[in-house]
Amino acid sequence: MKSIKNTLLGHLAVILLLASCEKEIKFKQKEVEPKIVINALQHPDSVWVINVSGSTSILDKNKPGSLPNATVSIKDEGGNVLEVLNHHSDGNFISTQGNKPLVGKTYQLEVSHINYKTVEATATFPSPVPFEIVDTSKVSFKSEESMRVKIRFADPIAESNYYFIKVMVTYKSYWFDEFGNMIDSVYNIYPESIGSNDLNVENLDENNSKAMELYVKDNLINGKTTEIDLYLNYFLFQHSEYTNITIFFASSSKEYYLHKISKNKYDATQGNPFAEPVIIYSNIKNGIGIFAGYSYSAISLK
User: Fold this and answer.
1) In sequence order, what are the residues at sequence separation of 6 or more whose Cβ sits closer than 8 angstroms to the Cβ of residue 298?
2) Please, what is the Cα angle at 281 between 56 and 251, to 5 degrees?
3) How far apart are CA 229 and CA 162, in angstroms?
4) What is the rounded average pLDDT of the residues 43-68?
5) How far apart are alpha carbons 2 and 146 in whole angstroms?
6) pTM for the whole thing?
7) Which of 184, 196, 210, 278 is most buried, judged by most C-beta within 10 A?
């Protein structure tokens, strides 16, 4: 088996749908108040980036948009302001001081705007949980030629941990001139689907045997050393154009986990008129969206 090198590499938007019809409808219920929308799924390898936009009333014909004039403050657990972020573009407020969240710390977010109620949220950034690859082998998974990758990790004792697993692939593509001579090459990085039969693993894509992310909850494995079999497309290991395959094992806060689970379920029901309504989890006081943290360990297979 090839030697495996440990690496740490750097990595949703809230969708608002407004519908209108030609016939005027009189609403008897109280009009829903517009709110600030926060999108901030943050990890310690990246400086603070908080996306801020505004929702609109259901009676408002204007589309929701970014709020570049908002005041976005990052505070410590005691409420002391650490930095006021600057607006960069498209509603993204970024740390200009290079500040990043620290593992094990809790932070408060406050966003204010003259046209909206001030919103607040709290996020804790869990420590990454290391893992190892103990075996790889070529197998058949759901009638597909696959590479089985067995990973092992030790779940921390007396903690509620929420994990997700994803795979990122680097693909090298080439540019040729009219005579067939290679003139340039470019590396593309994209997520790759993975599967698992493990009872501790959730695949939210009910229509497919594999998904772009798998979720693990520790209610059955609390404090135990656990092995999980993952299945990747075998062709990734057959062709030299796939120059890197990296498994990310992420430890997230409960808020992050609940948001991702509900968002995936929401996406899966779109276009199905018979599906039960799904509410996307939010931890934003007086607003909509998510402010949550995660950290990860990563291992490159190739």
Assistant:
1) 6, 7, 8, 9, 246, 247, 248, 249
2) 130
3) 18
4) 79
5) 17
6) 0.80
7) 196
CATH number of the domain enclosing 272: 2.60.40.1270
- The structural domain count of the chain equals 2
> Phi-psi region for residue 158, left (φ > 0), alpha (ψ -120 to 50) or beta?
left
Domain range enclosing 108: 7-14+31-126+254-294
Of 198, 248, 265, nearest to 226 by C-alpha is 198
With the CA atoms of 203, 205, 207 and 212 taken in that order, what torsion angle do they form, in degrees rounded to the nearest 10? -100
For a pLDDT cut of 70, what percent of the chain falls above it?
86
Range 127-140 average pLDDT? 96
90: left (phi over 0), alpha (psi -120 to 50) or beta: left
181 with 226, same domain: the answer is yes
Based on the fold, state whether residues 95 and 58 are members of the same structural domain: yes
